[in-house]
Write a structure and sequence with these properties.
Layout: H1 10-16, H2 20-31, E1 47-57, E2 60-69, H3 74-77, E3 82-88, E4 95-101, E5 112-119, E6 124-130, E7 147-153, E8 159-168, E9 172-177, E10 182-187, E11 192-196, E12 203-204, H4 209-217, E13 225-229, E14 232-236, E15 242-245, E16 253-254, E17 264-270, E18 276-283, E19 289-298, E20 304-308, E21 324-328, E22 330-334, E23 337-342, E24 347-351, E25 358-366, E26 372-380, E27 385-392, E28 397-401, E29 423-424, E30 435-442, E31 445-450, E32 454-459, E33 467-473, E34 475-486
Antiparallel strand pairs: 1-2, 2-3, 3-4, 5-6, 6-7, 7-8, 9-10, 10-11, 11-12, 13-14, 14-15, 15-16, 17-18, 18-19, 19-20, 21-24, 22-23, 23-34, 24-33, 25-30, 25-34, 26-27, 26-33, 27-28, 28-29, 30-31, 31-32
Length: 490
């Protein structure tokens, strides 16, 4: 046993633990190799990624995230979240920076979801966050309840905390309006709205359109977000309802085609070249999981969609040559054009030995009036198990479910449970026309892009089988140009 009257440096700890080489070797043995790409990334060990906060400066995209341990179980269940930080200029090569906003006082419960913003007036970066103080009242805390705080940085990397509370409140979002040179901060789902000219003095906004919308529609009080993109302005909350306006502060009109896709608490920001990105996390059972970045798709009327970010799609090996391992019902053609036809019962074609980590691309051509069709991933047996991705054109319904008694899974509601692999998207139009389907399966994550305009993500509780089904019921579908590739090892 040895005692020191000071904190040991990391180099000293390594020397006492067998030396730097031994520590590096044990690090790989215990935690495995670091993941180089950001898509589907999470911290190593029993750690996870939570809510994201995104911004962009001079063509460099910054993604801040809540570093989580034990699925919100750290610090007696208070979370103890801290701001982690990635940045990239090309979305392929990412720099993982030191923690931007760590916990530094015993009374800080967690760094709750806020935002990071660059101030063009003074050239500094400001990270706003809540201390989540309502979770517990530490006796030595200078103020009771939850408050908004800020940290300041000269370079956007190294932040200095200011322990003076800025405003009372919870999860927040902050944005800048260049035309008026004002900053706006919204919290409690928009029910609280302040503005400032210097990020120091704040005044409550009277007759706020954010507040009117939040109270009228009873919006979630958590994780509000805003986006300015191509002369449109957007506002959303943790409930995933999304609104648009031609003005940065409203009034707000709800977009009927919700872009919810199974990611939790996504935040959005304009990138460069007239692009915009969103980032969120796909859950394990429990809070926190893997980071996922999407690219936003914008219609002329301001409606939004989501698609895979091309630069962030995992690398793949050479294409596999699929072989028909089993079939049921009326199946013909090959994997250049696989025709599946059925009456009231299920017909399918099955492929075996599909890697659990793979990318599957194809074009789907449904015939008029077909009832339901799709693919079943990680399947087993005679359509007895798997993750069924099904499309019902008549009701614009897309869902993940499980095969039911050897047939198509039961219709699911528009919800994705935390850590679950069943649930449906809000209405998806155009399923009666040909569309592309891009599927990535990795580490039990099932990620889908439909027609370069909608995405859906889930996570299996177990690896599942290695059989892939192409199925139809109540009509005919042709699956064309099926391209199946294993993901490359990082």
């Amino acid at each position: 046993v040895a005692l020191w009257d000071r904190a040991l440096k990391p180099e000293e700890i390594a020397a006492l633990s067998g030396g730097a080489e031994h520590v590096a070797r044990r690090d790989l043995e215990i935690l495995g190799p670091p993941q180089r790409s950001l898509q589907y990334w999470r911290p190593r060990g029993k750690a996870y990624a939570g809510d994201c906060m995104v911004t962009c400066r001079d063509g460099e995209f910054h993604l801040f995230y809540l570093y989580d341990r034990l699925h919100h179980g750290a610090k007696w269940g208070l979370g103890a979240h801290q701001y982690g930080h990635f940045s990239s200029t090309d979305l392929k090569h990412w720099t993982h920076h030191p923690l931007a906003v760590p916990i530094q006082r015993q009374w800080e419960c967690a760094m709750g979801t806020g935002n990071v913003i660059y101030n063009p007036n003074d050239g500094k970066w400001y990270a706003f966050y809540t201390d989540c103080g309502s979770r517990i009242q530490f006796v030595d805390k200078p103020q009771r309840g939850a408050w908004l705080f800020r940290s300041v940085s000269e370079d956007g990397i190294h932040f200095t905390k200011d322990f003076r509370p800025v405003l009372p409140g919870f999860d927040s979002d902050i944005f800048y309006v260049p035309e008026t040179r004002t900053f706006h901060l919204i919290a409690e789902g928009g029910r609280t709205h302040y503005q400032s000219g210097d990020l120091e003095k704040w005044a409550e906004v009277p007759d706020s359109e954010f507040r009117k919308t939040a109270e009228r529609d009873n919006l979630s009080r958590i994780c509000p977000d805003t986006l300015a993109w191509n002369s449109w302005y957007y506002f959303t909350t943790g409930s995933s309802r999304i609104y648009k306006s031609r003005r940065p502060v409203g009034p707000w009109e709800e977009i009927p085609k919700n872009t919810f896709d199974g990611l939790f608490y996504s935040k959005m920001h304009e990138f460069k070249d007239r692009r915009a990105l969103a980032a969120g996390w796909v859950a394990f059972p429990g809070w926190g999981g893997n980071l996922v970045v999407r690219e936003l798709v914008q219609s002329p009327n301001g409606e939004l969609g989501l698609k895979f970010v091309p630069e962030m799609i995992p690398a793949c090996g050479p294409p596999l040559v699929p072989q028909l391992a089993a079939k049921k019902g009326d199946v013909s053609g090959d994997f250049a054009a696989l025709r599946v036809r059925a009456e009231d019962t299920l017909s399918y074609a099955a492929v075996d030995n599909v890697p659990h980590d793979s990318r599957i691309r194809l074009t789907v051509r449904p015939s008029p009036g077909v009832e339901v069709f799709g693919v079943c991933l990680c399947g087993e047996g005679d359509y007895r198990a798997g993750s069924e991705l099904s499309f019902r054109p008549a009701s614009n319904h897309v869902q993940f479910a499980h095969p039911h008694e050897g047939g198509v899974g039961k219709k699911q509601p528009v919800v994705t449970l935390m850590g679950g692999d069943t649930g449906a998207l809000p209405s998806v139009e155009g399923l009666d026309k040909p569309f592309t389907l891009d599927i990535i399966t990795k580490d039990r994550i099932l990620d889908v892009c439909i027609g370069e305009r909608r995405t859906l993500i889930a996570r299996r509780a177990d690896p599942g089988g290695n059989r892939l089904f192409f199925f139809a019921q109540g009509g005919e579908v042709v699956f064309e140009q099926i391209d199946l590739r294993p993901l490359s090892r990082e």
